[in-house]
Amino acid sequence: MISRDEFRHALGRFASGVTVITTTDKHGHRHGITVSAFCSVSLAPPLILICIDRHTGSHHAFEENEFFAVNILREDQQHYSDHFASHADDKFDGIAFDENANGVPVLKDVLVNLECRRVNAHASGDHTIFVGEVERATVSDGDPLVYFHGTYHRLKNY
């Protein structure tokens, strides 16, 4: 069987975009975490999935609230990725965001916002796979922040 380190090393060779996933818990506290495990599932209906480690401090909020937002970062927003991956007490302090109609924080000035309603959750390994139906999308111009081989990159000559 492949070791955890070998698996992490192999998957580090897969380039991915970088997202910040946001929601609120049952008490209305805002939560946001950096997630690279994100992909589309279906066009009809429009479904996406995110994978969140069950040991992450914000995991409970994604179980408690059926609504969440996927905020896809632009190439100049590494600081958002680092900030939301930190253990800051208030991850929204100093961050520009709006709250949508469901009370979910949606980051301003990112490449894409996808406002979602959870339709399924599946425990798998040490993560939960949350499937969300996209109810609203906002798309801006720019290039994505890319994570590859343990570092951030920008697209060149595509």
Task: Summarize the entry for a quick read.
This protein has three helices and twelve strands; from the N terminus they run H-E-E-E-E-E-H-E-H-E-E-E-E-E-E.
Topology of this structure?
Elements: H1 4-11, E1 16-17, E2 19-24, E3 30-35, E4 38-42, E5 47-53, H2 59-64, E6 67-72, H3 78-85, E7 97-99, E8 105-107, E9 112-124, E10 127-139, E11 145-148, E12 151-154
Antiparallel strand pairs: 1-11, 2-3, 2-6, 4-5, 5-10, 6-9, 7-8, 9-10, 11-12
What does this structure look like?
The chain is mostly beta strands and 158 residues long. It has a single domain (14-150), classed as Electron Transport, Fmn-binding Protein, Chain A (Pnp Oxidase, Chain A). It is built from three helices and twelve strands. It has a seven-stranded antiparallel beta sheet. The chain has a three-stranded antiparallel beta sheet with strand order 1-11-12, with no helix packed on it. A two-stranded antiparallel ribbon has the order 7-8. Strand 4 (38-42) and strand 5 form a beta hairpin. The chain is globular. The protein starts with a helix and ends with a strand. The relative contact order is 0.23.
